[in-house]
Amino acid sequence: MQLSRDQLLRAYRQMVVIRMFEERLHAEIMTGEIAGFTHLYCGQEAAAVGVCEHLGHDDFIVSTHRGHGHCIAKGCDVKGMMKEIYGRADGLCKGKAGSMHIADVSVGMLGANGIVGAGAPQAVGAALAAKLDGKGKVAIGFSGDGACNQGTTFEAMNMAVVTKAPCIFVFENNHYSEHTGFEYAVGTNRDIASRAEAFGMKVWRANGSDFFDTYETMADLLAYVRAGNGPAAIELDTERFYGHFEGDPQRYRGPGEVERLRKDRDCLVAFRQKVEASGVLEIAALDAIDAEVAILIDEAVAEARAAPAPALSEVTTDVYVSY
Ligand SMILES: Cc1ncc(C[n+]2csc(CCOP(=O)(O)OP(=O)(O)O)c2C)c(N)n1
Ligand SMILES: [Mg+2]
After folding, report:
1. Which of 20, 71, 269, 279 keeps 20 to 30 A from 79, CA to CA?
2. Do residues 221 and 192 lie in contact, with contact meaning Cβ atoms separated by under 8 Å?
3. Does 223 sit in the ligand 1 pocket, CB within 6 Å?
4. What does the pLDDT look like over 133-163, one tens digit per residue?
C-alpha cells in the first residue's frame, strides 16, 4: 500500500504527539500538581494511530483506562486534554473527567473509562447505531489483553455477531494486566484473536509496534466491515514502556526488560528506519515535526497550569443527564 507523503507525515506526527504528551506527563506527575490516577500509553502509539488514521469523526471509538493515545489518535484537542488532566474548567470535559474518563463525542471519541471490559459493550451499542444510520460507519472498541478475559467482552462479541454490527474489537496485547503477566493470566490458549474467531468473527493479527503493519492490516479489516460483513477483531502485539500506572515500581518486570523493549520495539524508531531506508521521507522533515510538537506540548502544559479550576458551584452539574 502506498501512503502519500502527507499521510506519512501526519501519522508520524500523531505518534510523536502521543509520545511527547506522555513523556511530559510522566515528568509533570512527579511535581504533584496533577490529581488522580494516570496510565501511560507510551510504546503503544502505532496501535492507536495505525487504527485511527483510517477513521473519520463520524466513526466511533471507545477507549480504556489507558486512553490518552486513543484520544489523540482520534482527534481530541491536545491542549484541551492537558487542561482536562490538570482538572481545569476549560478542559475537554470541564475538568471533571481527569486522565481516565476523557471523551469528545464531536470527534467520535466516546470515552475512556476505568472499568476493565466496559469498552467492548459500548462499542457494540455505537456500532448498532451506526448500522441503523446506514452510512457505512463503524465503531471500534479498544481492549487490553486483561480486558479480553472479562465476561463483558465475551457478551459483547456474541452480541455483535448476532446483530451483525459493524463493530471492531481491537485487542492491544501489551503482555501485562496490571502486574500480572499475559502468560499467567490468559491460560493455555494465548491466541486472543482466536476467541473472537470462536464467536464466528473473521480475525486479523498485526505487529502493534509497527505503524505500517497495523495500518495495512486495518485497511483489509475495515474494507471487510464497511462492506457490511458484520463485526471483526484484530489482535495487536505491542508493549508499554512505563508502569501500569504512574508510580508503579514495576518489580514484576525482568532485568533489563524495559531497556530491551525501548531498543527493539519502539514504533517511532521503526517508523524512522523504514521511511529513511525507503527514501520516502527525509529525516529533516521528521526532526522538524519533533521540534514543532515539543513546542505544542510546552504550550499545553503552560496553558493548563495557568487555567482556572472549575467553580465549586459546578460540582453537581453534568452529573446526570437532564432532559
Ligand atoms: C472490572 C475491573 N476489574 C479490575 C480493575 C482493576 N484494573 C485496572 S487496569 C487492570 C488491568 C487491565 O489490563 P489490560 O486490559 O491488559 O490493559 P492494560 O492496562 O494493559 O492497558 C485492572 C485489573 C478494574 N479497573 N475494573
Ligand atoms: Mg495489557
Report:
1. 269
2. no
3. no
4. 999 999 999 999 999 999 999 999 999 999 9
Please state the pTM of the whole predicted model.
Answer: 0.98
What number is the average pLDDT over the span 31-39? 94
* Residue 323: per-residue pLDDT: 65
Please indicate whether residue 70, judged by its CB atom, sits closer than 6 Å to ligand 1.
no
Residue 289: the pLDDT is 98
Pairing of strands 180-181, 176-177: antiparallel
* CA–CA–CA angle 208, 262, 46 (5° rounding): 25
Which of 3.30.420.40, 3.30.70.100, 3.40.50.970, 3.40.1360.10 would CATH assign to domain 5-309?
Answer: 3.40.50.970
186 confidence band (pLDDT: 50, 70, 90): confident
- Of 41, 37, 35, 40, give the one whose Cα is nearest residue 86: 35
Helix (H, G, I), strand (E, B), or coil: what is residue 131?
Answer: helix
Residue 164 and residue 203: Cα distance in Å, rounded? 15
Report whether residue 147 contacts ligand 1, using a CB cutoff of 6 Å: yes
**What is the three-class DSSP state of 180?**
strand
**Contact 43 CB / ligand 1 (< 6 Å):** no
> How far, in Å, is the centroid of ligand 1 from the Cα of 4?
37
Q: Which atom of ligand 1 is nearest to the CA of 143?
A: 15
183 neighbors 173 (Cβ within 8 angstroms): no
* Domain boundaries, given as residue ranges, for the chain: 5-309
Place of cell 505544542: 296
Residue 115 Cβ contacting ligand 1 at under 6 Å = yes
By three-state DSSP, how is residue 64 classified?
coil
